[in-house]
TrEMBL record:
UniProt xrefs under Gene3D superfamilies: 2.40.50.100
One example of a Gene Ontology biological process annotation: fatty acid biosynthetic process
Originating organism: Pseudorhodobacter turbinis
Domain of life of the source: Bacteria
UniProt-recorded Gene Ontology molecular function terms: acetyl-CoA carboxylase activity
Protein name: Biotin carboxyl carrier protein of acetyl-CoA carboxylase
Pathway linked to the protein: Lipid metabolism; fatty acid biosynthesis
Coiled coil: none
């Protein structure tokens, strides 16, 4: 991140977001160098209401049929009463480490406060608890995918 925050940087980021929307892109990543030890790294990601596929070093198990069920065009998972939405921007992980057992799977019973996934933000692993007891009906993110604030992560009923 740049050592100095300027109106020009803000305008630059807004322009990138507009380019993202105008050209129907899902992600833009740009590095702006100001001086030898001063740069601005910007990554703008547009989160869709569909399961994302992320490229990782470890193989990702294919989602179950229930997890990959298509979302109706008029249905917004974030508006579902059982939606667990992201409290922050970061990278979602369904397990504590690659290859380990996921915190939760479709059809699993969870208790209120139970960790159901982790969101890494600024090199900090944030455990995301189930807001209520219930059954996980859908998982809307893939392991290692980028998530935005308020993006639906899973449906717990």
């Amino acid at each position: 991140m740049s050592k100095h925050s300027t109106d020009a940087d803000v305008a630059f980021i807004k322009a990138l977001a507009e380019i993202l929307n105008t050209n129907e892109l899902t992600e833009i990543s740009v590095k702006r160098d100001y001086a030898e030890d001063d740069s601005l790294d910007v990554r703008v990601v547009k989160q869709a209401n569909v399961v994302q596929v992320a490229a990782t070093a470890a193989p990702i198990a294919a989602p179950s049929a229930a997890a990959a069920a298509p979302v109706a065009a008029n249905e917004d998972p974030a508006q579902h009463p059982g939606a667990l939405t992201s409290p922050m921007v970061g990278t979602a992980y369904l397990a504590a480490e690659p290859g380990s057992t996921p915190f939760a799977t479709v059809g699993a019973q969870v208790t209120e406060g139970q960790t159901v996934l982790i969101i890494e933000a600024m090199k900090t692993m944030n455990h995301i608890p189930a807001p209520r007891a219930g059954t996980i009906k859908r998982i809307l993110v893939e392991d290692g995918s980028a998530v935005e604030f308020g993006a639906p992560l899973m449906i717990i009923e």
